[in-house]
Specification:
Helix content is about 5%, strand content about 45%. It is built from four helices and 72 strands. It has about 850 residues and is mainly β. It folds into six domains: about 160 residues, no CATH class; about 260 residues; about 90 residues, Macroglobulin (MG2) domain (Immunoglobulin-like); about 100 residues, Sandwich (Immunoglobulin-like), CATH 2.60.40.10; about 100 residues, no CATH class; about 55 residues. Strands 19, 20, 22, 26, 28, 29, 31, 32, 34, 36, 38, 39 and 41 form a 13-stranded parallel beta sheet that branches. It has a seven-stranded parallel beta sheet with strand order 21-27-30-33-35-37-40, with no helix packed on it. A five-stranded mixed beta sheet has the order 11-18-17-14-15, with no helix packed on it. The N and C termini lie far apart (about 160 Å). It is elongated and about 160 Å long.
């Protein structure tokens, strides 16, 4: 009709016939015109039959079914009703009979418009020339079975509305995982379908009503369904299917270096390595969280806690007739769907496997374990081979984006075939790559400063060595020639001895496509902040996938990008949408689905630097020590109360970081302790509106005397305060600005003659502590330090004064040798100082340790005469 449109979801259709034309005439005219149209593919006005029956070009396609239109005088509904009484099951239309044709307007002109053609989502087709207001009536005469016509002419249908809805399941992001069998079905209203034709958009098709199908590769595919109705007409619907090779049907486990029990394997409750391996089967991914792993991992134990590594699944699927196979896989009655899926070992940044010059290998196995991948690890200090494989039946191993430093050998592999070594830094090992296998790719690596670079068994076949930087090895190549695009230049690492293998931004390694490097514009982000991901060193116009995993381990998206002519890319379309400290980015080659590079970043968090404030000025000064293993407890405010979250310890650089939830209150508390002579009692509450950085001083427990040493008591400042001691010389020390403790501290002093003496403070208040040490005579002070329970950053230890105790000696002369006299000493108050002292014959008596005062001596016992 005028202005009529057909859409994918609703088709309005009219079929009319010429009342005066018999079936025989229609067939004759149709055959004649078919011959004329076979070369042109169109029917001109002059070529159209006088009776108005228009033949069609019977070009058959897999995905397009179109209808032709003729304009004739309408036939009565009565006649149409007679034809519709036929049983539609009496005749079936095969896939091959679905045709592509043209639409002919009432005036005999032809239109290029096609009905039922595969298209994109929400595609709408307009039939007829809207400006000319011409009526167009569509007829799928080619699809009407011959035995459904009557003597009066073909079947006449009332106007019918047909609605097709295609349905299939996806993940939460609208993707179908590649390799997962998915059931496709359709609900149809307005017509009784009796034949289906599905086109999956990748070369595969099926005529099942509800086929089960698995896409092999990720990408966007146009899925089309064409149905043949009981009226013999064809109707089509198309939609887009998004396929990702991220497969949630496989299991993911997280591993931590400090996990103490099995946990659950989640990112918040990670496994130990052994626990994870015991649960692992084909297709699983093991993520290693940041940390140092001082271990050697025997992969022969994989699957010991499960039914085994290889899994066979029984899948009940309906029979799929008339199917054609493209890239995908139509479900069969028995499917071994996971045997060839890799077990991936993926490390977050800052994962270090350290053999401590005592362990042989980081990862090793002797059993027939195939389809393994190792990504983004740093391996150092292993006596043997960091990765060691010794089984000639093993196939398909990926070793990608790792760093090997100071090992006996970086990679030592004897296997059957399918070894892929890419984008690794292999430096300062006894041997770099030692390989005995067929079908080996050694590409895009930096292999430098090893005793042996690349060592290959020259009896093996199909060895590819290319795009490597092989430099400074005592022997660069053995058993294989340099690749056509290999180079030999100094990689100029930033500081390889301290494991900083950063390559200069303008390094020729990138220009020559030797090494791939992807970075984010920051190491950490606040919630909602844009993440800018840049890459370089890739091939020009290379199709890549950026895969992002949130900090809770959930899949964010697969972003398809293409590098520029220089092999670079920039992507800034993602902003942090989850609070957590471990985001993971994988760079994947779109052509084969292989991982090329792995990197990670964190979002909003607190960063703490803990140092020893030696000078007590409250700020970090060059040379002041950074404190390791200082403990902090993290609390989060929930429903008005602070709830414990975690305990974190500073690393060897006095640093720790912890992810925080944006928009919440937290409290951080230091665990009291003696940390290499320093301690503190830091506590703070804060609101998280972004990253928080704190430099926290830890004060020394030992406060050393500030005065210049040595000190001679005979010349030092005098004061009568002796602290109650009676020693001839009393040293009085004062510890000032002591805050937050009333617990007595201790003082240790070393003298030239008296040696080392330790005393406890005798006077304590909120700001000072007093220490008194007595010596038998004047001496020289060599060192002194005070230790208090609560560390003090601003405390100040000084020698206040020295008290020389007074003494009085009385000599008595003129006595007979047997005469005795007694004397008593009285202070200024008239009180006797001690008991009477006596002397017999000529001699003396002494009073020592006297306070400063005015004294009186009385002879209290007089000898006879």
């Amino acid at each position: 009709g005028e202005g009529k449109t057909t859409t994918e979801t609703e088709v309005t259709e009219e079929t009319v016939t010429e009342e005066s034309v018999s079936n025989e005439t229609a067939e004759e005219d149709s055959s004649e015109n078919n011959g004329e149209n076979s070369s042109e593919g169109k029917i001109s006005n002059e070529e159209a039959p006088e009776e108005g029956i228009v033949s069609e070009d019977k070009t058959t396609t897999e995905t397009e079914v179109t209808e032709e239109a003729v304009t004739e005088e309408p036939v009565s509904n009565e006649t149409a009703g007679e034809d519709n009484s036929k049983d539609p099951s009496e005749s079936e239309i095969s896939d091959e009979e679905m045709v592509e044709g043209e639409i002919v307007s009432e005036d005999g002109t032809t239109s290029e418009e096609e009905v039922g053609q595969e298209g994109e989502e929400d595609n709408t087709e307009t039939v007829g020339d809207e400006e000319a207001k011409e009526e167009v009536i569509e007829v799928a005469s080619e699809l009407v079975p011959e035995d459904e016509t009557t003597e009066e002419g073909p079947v006449v249908e009332e106007v019918t509305e047909v609605k097709i809805d295609i349905s299939f399941s996806t993940d939460e992001n609208g993707y179908i995982p590649a390799g997962r069998v998915t059931t496709f079905s359709a609900s149809i209203e307005g017509i009784d379908p009796f034949q289906y034709f599905w086109d999956f958009g990748d070369g595969s098709s099926s005529s099942s009503q509800s086929p089960q199908y698995a896409y092999v590769s990720d990408g966007n595919y146009t899925l089309s369904l064409t149905i043949i109705g009981s009226n013999g007409n064809a109707y089509s619907k198309s939609t887009t299917v998004h396929v990702s090779d991220y497969n949630p049907d496989t299991t993911e486990y997280w591993i931590s270096s400090d996990a103490t029990d099995e946990g659950t394997g989640t990112i918040d409750d990670p496994y130990t390595i052994d626990a994870a391996l015991s649960h692992t089967v084909n297709g699983d991914t093991l993520y290693f969280l940041p940390g140092t792993y001082n271990t050697s991992v025997n992969l022969d134990v994989i699957g010991t806690g499960t039914e085994g590594v290889s899994i066979e699944t029984e899948t009940e699927a309906e029979e799929l007739p008339d199917e054609t196979e493209g890239e995908g896989i139509l479900a069969e009655t028995k499917e071994e769907d996971k045997e060839d899926l890799s077990i991936k070992f993926i490390a977050y940044d800052d994962v270090i496997f350290d053999g401590e010059s005592a362990l042989d290998s980081a990862f090793y196995f002797n059993s027939n374990l195939s389809y393994l991948g190792f990504y983004n690890f740093t391996f150092i200090n292993y006596l043997g081979s960091a990765i060691y494989i010794n089984n000639e039946d093993v196939t398909n191993i990926d070793i990608v984006d790792n760093t090997f430093f100071n090992n006996g050998a970086a990679i030592d592999v004897t296997m059957d075939s399918g070894l892929n070594i890419q984008n690794n830094i292999i430096v300062d090992n006894d041997a770099g790559v030692v390989i005995s296998a067929d079908d080996v790719n050694i590409e895009h690596n930096v292999i430098a400063f090893n005793e042996e670079g690349i060592v290959v068994d020259d009896t093996k076949d199909n060895i590819t060595v290319d795009y490597n930087d092989v430099y400074g090895n005592e022997k660069d190549y053995q058993g294989v020639e340099p690749g056509e695009n290999d180079i030999s230049i100094d990689p100029e690492f930033a500081d390889k001895d301290n494991l900083d293998f950063t390559i200069l931004e303008d390094s020729p390694l990138y220009e020559n496509n030797i090494i791939w490097k992807t970075t984010t514009n920051k190491d950490d982000y606040t919630y909602g902040e844009q993440v800018v991901i840049t890459g370089k060193g890739y091939s020009p116009d290379q199709e890549l996938i950026i895969r992002i995993l949130r900090a809770d381990g959930t899949f964010v998206d697969d972003i398809h990008i293409t590098t520029d002519k220089n092999g670079c890319f920039t992507y800034d379309g993602y902003s942090v949408d989850y609070i957590g400290k471990n985001y993971l980015i994988q760079i994947i080659n779109n052509a084969d689905g292989n991982i090329l590079e792995v990197l990670s970043f964190t979002d909003c968090h607190v960063k703490v630097y803990k140092y020893g404030d030696e000078d007590g000025d409250g700020s970090y000064d060059a040379g002041e020590p950074m404190l390791e293993n200082v403990g902090f407890e993290i609390y989060k405010k929930i429903d008005g109360n602070y709830v414990y979250q975690d305990t974190i310890y500073t690393d060897s650089n006095g640093y720790f970081t912890y992810a925080l939830s944006y928009g919440n209150w937290y409290r951080i508390e230091e665990i009291p302790g003696n940390y290499n002579g320093y301690g503190g009692s830091y506590s703070e509450e804060f609101y998280v509106g972004g990253d928080i950085t704190r430099w926290i001083p830890n004060c020394p427990f030992d406060i050393f005397i500030k005065q210049t040493l040595p000190i001679d008591s005979s010349t030092f400042k005098e004061d009568p305060d002796d602290g109650g001691l009676t020693d001839p010389v009393v040293w009085h020390f004062i510890l000032n600005q002591v805050a937050g403790t009333t617990t007595p501290g201790t003082l240790t002093a070393t003298f030239q003659n008296a040696g080392t003496i330790t005393v406890t403070s005798s006077k304590v208040n909120q700001s000072t502590q007093h220490f008194y040490i007595g010596t038998s005579a004047d001496d020289i002070l060599l060192s002194a330090s005070a230790t208090v329970y609560s560390p003090q950053c601003r405390a100040n230890l000084v020698l206040s004064h020295v008290c020389h105790k007074s003494s009085i000696t009385l000599e008595k002369k003129g006595l007979d040798s047997n005469d005795t006299a007694g004397f008593t000493l009285y202070d200024s108050s008239g009180a006797a100082v001690g008991a009477e002292k006596t002397v017999t014959g000529n001699g003396s008596v002494s009073w020592t340790g006297l306070d400063w005062d005015t004294y009186t001596i009385k002879e209290t016992t007089t000898p006879p005469g």
